[in-house]
């Protein structure tokens, strides 16, 4: 047999232990690759991390029905579940690559590099990609992983005593790869060439060498894994310069005093009932539903808003200081997500500070369609590439549509759109509440479909009238006697006129409504129920300010929001 071997193939046959370690090597190489990429991304741009870039591409291509299911099932943890799923898939692929490298060392390492190229392509083709530099984290991480895998597999496949490549006796304990089975590679076996003692010595030396190779493999794998973990942790702890600057710009921001403050909340609008949603939702508890796997950290000092499109007399570019120097207003407004199922949690009420969007549009020469304007859709674009289409008529009909930069007395939190977001009462968030906004384009619904429309959602979506029982909780076990049933109801821009509660199949009973703040906020309600022992179903329905009552039949969230009566089942304990 020719002594020159194919460099793509192992220098000896692999054992079962070798295969297990090769699989482990693939996992370690993948982990190191991602850790190094994460470290580099922390210095370049966190959104350029391969997991984030690939995850974003997956989100964009996921059917709307599956996205809606993920939100219903995992809530605000849907992004973490997606990233975990990506990591599990990568782990399976890494095992396969490790086994491939055991047979084809170079090809296995090249496969790691190929995944790096895919990650780089995903990063530079994302809508929020800023430059080709976004490819660097994936490429550097892949290079580190490919090199490590090549080294680790080399440790496993090193020649060992007891088997030789070009001359010598028969194969030792591990055996050589070749057509001769147990015969030596590159020579023929010579009967009697070895004594029994020499053969035993060779076998023992081979076993000791195998153990040494595996110890060396494990030492390299553990050392590089720990080093990568430490480097990635350091990168996350230190953060990127861009994120640090963004955080500093938010900390330094001083909100202006509103020229038009929010009216004081009526004393009777806040009910002191245990378990009921507070009238004002704290920022930390306000729902978050978006597609951003990494919350954008925008530097307020560098932020710009571009206003352009059909009907705009002259294109405008505004800084945050430009906005805050305008007439500012403060309003209490309830927001709701279209993915909110009947009785769901994706609704909240906050005090927003910003500038009236309609005033800015009119100054730019924009007229609504009812006044002959050419544009009927306002497309807001986020720094992460999200597009949200809003009817121009709704924005300019007199409601408090805002470009908001304050939330509950502080600058917008990053996760809620800092430095500026849109807030439009009466419309679901996916057609109005653009976070991290950077441009507004005036166009038409016929000319452009915003992000969610091709994915099966309606182009226009006014908020549906909804009501929810907050207490008692589903499957609760209250004691017999007077039980306070309480919750919230909302129909932004129409207001709530009446809330009714029904016990089992009994008659509807009118609940006591808290005082109305404005028609753009939700209203709390209570109903004192004389509860008797046993299992009961409590149902609620609301009537909005136009006199329309919630329909009974439940519908799904797609294409323009769920509707139907909310009910809870409880078991009352106690009594005779």
Most strands sheet: 5 strands, mixed
What sort of overall outline do the alpha carbons produce when their principal axes are compared?
Answer: globular
* Radius of gyration over all CA atoms, rounded: 32 Å
Fraction of residues in helix: 25-40%
Provide the structure class. alpha+beta
Work out the helix count.
11
Q: Strands of the biggest beta sheet: in what spatial order?
A: 2-1-10-5-6
* Percent strand: 15-25%
Mean pLDDT, rounded to whole units?
Answer: 87
Low-confidence stretches: 1-10, 163-194
Q: Give the tally of β-strands.
A: 18
Question: Can you offer a commentary on this structure?
Answer:
- The protein is α+β, with helices and mostly antiparallel strands.
- It has helices spanning 16-44, 50-61, 64-74, 78-103, 105-124, 136-156, 196-238, 241-252, 320-324, 357-363, 392-395; strands at 304-309, 316-319, 329-336, 347-356, 377-382, 387-391, 402-407, 410-411, 421-423, 437-443, 466-471, 481-490, 496-503, 509-510, 512-513, 523-531, 534-544, 566-572.
- The strands form four sheets. Strands 2-1-10-5-6 form a five-stranded mixed sheet. Strands 3, 4, 7, 8 and 9 form a five-stranded antiparallel sheet that branches.
- Strand 5 and strand 6 (387-391) form a beta hairpin.
- Helix 1 crosses helix 4, helix 2 (50-61) crosses helix 5 and helix 4 (78-103) runs antiparallel to helix 5.
- The termini are far apart.
